[in-house]
Specification:
By secondary structure, the protein is an alpha/beta fold. It has 2 domains: 64 residues, Orthogonal Bundle (Helicase, Ruva Protein, domain 3), CATH 1.10.8.10; 201 residues, 3-Layer(aba) Sandwich (Rossmann fold), CATH 3.40.50. It has a 7-stranded mixed sheet, with helices on both faces. A two-stranded antiparallel sheet has the order 1-2. Bound molecules: S-adenosylmethionine.
């Protein structure tokens, strides 16, 4: 069987089973089986598929048909122009989160920020990107030891100045010492689980997705703990979940000022920024 035929057949099976972007998915899985990039498939479409590559490709197609996200099959996801290792122990970093990173980079470059903390770091994508883009060392935490193991691998691979620790939100942070606290917290209401894409619900870690019945539980705790650890004049930046802006803004009204919202490409409020009152 040639690469071209393997691609066509793979795309057809995926399409019949209603997998999104079947052709692209088949290309990604076949190039992963061959350990080459997608351009190779076009340059060598007439080449015969080796038995080993065929076995790998078949396994990957089967996993994808059973709902496993492509990124967990290939164990990688691009974020802010870099490749990060991902496993089912970490959330797959989303492109929307790059808005949070953009806002944080701008703040670090404009305001003096020596102590930066990323809470709920997952794969480490935010913390590692901030450290690499700004040259400022970053602290990052997660409640999941398994997620931190993946984050450390990403840190070492990118040679980024990030220190990780395990903890529940800001509980391990002493004093009002943080200049910039960033977080993409879990924000999906528990009740929404039933209607979620199965790729997300059945494969991504629930500790990374769900935040109580309302989806606001972690925001409530995080905004209150952040007020205790961010220095006066320091900043809090959080990614926003669907329809959470008003509720999160209300949580910030006593301890925070200069509240700003960043909208994503779909014009949805995606990031909230607040300055700790003096
Ligand atoms: C939405 S994911 C974000 C992961 C990563 N920062 C990203 O943007 O791709 C939320 C992360 O928060 C972590 N988390 C959940 N509850 C936590 C808690 N109470 N304290 C610290 N981290 C928590 C999860 O393990 C998960 O890695």
């Amino acid at each position: 069987m040639t690469l071209q035929t393997a691609l066509r057949q793979g795309a057809e099976i995926l399409d019949k089973n209603s997998v999104a972007a079947p052709r692209l998915t088949a290309e990604v899985l076949l190039s992963h089986a061959l350990r080459c990039d997608r351009a190779y498939l076009y340059a060598h479409g007439g080449d015969e598929l080796t038995t080993v590559a065929w076995i790998h490709y078949g396994r990957y197609l089967d996993e994808r048909l059973r709902g496993k996200p492509t990124q967990y099959i290939t164990k990688k996801q691009e974020f802010y122009g870099r490749e990060f290792r991902v496993t089912p122990d970490v959330l797959i970093p989303r492109p929307e989160t790059e808005h949070l990173v953009e806002a944080a980079i701008a703040a670090i470059r404009t305001h003096s920020s020596e102590r930066i903390l990323d809470i709920g770091t997952g794969s480490g994508a935010i913390a590692i990107t901030l450290a690499l883009e700004t040259g400022v060392p970053v602290f990052a935490s997660d409640v999941s030891m398994k997620a931190l193991a993946v984050a450390r691998e990403n840190r070492d691979r990118h040679n980024a100045r990030v220190s990780f620790f395990c903890g529940d939100l800001a509980s391990a942070v002493a004093g009002r010492s943080i200049d910039l606290l960033v977080s993409n917290p879990p924000y999906v209401p528990g009740v929404d689980g039933a209607n979620m894409q199965r790729e997300v619900r059945d494969w991504e870690p629930h500790v990374a997705l769900f935040a109580g019945d309302s989806g606001l539980e972690i925001y409530e705790r995080l905004t209150s703990e952040a007020a205790a650890v961010v220095r006066p004049g320091g900043r809090l930046m959080m990614e926003l979940g669907y329809r959470s802006l008003d509720a999160v803004r209300a949580m910030l009204k006593w301890d925070w000022t200069d509240i700003e919202t960043v909208f994503d490409l779909a014009s949805l409020p995606r990031v909230i920024i607040a300055v700790r009152r003096f």
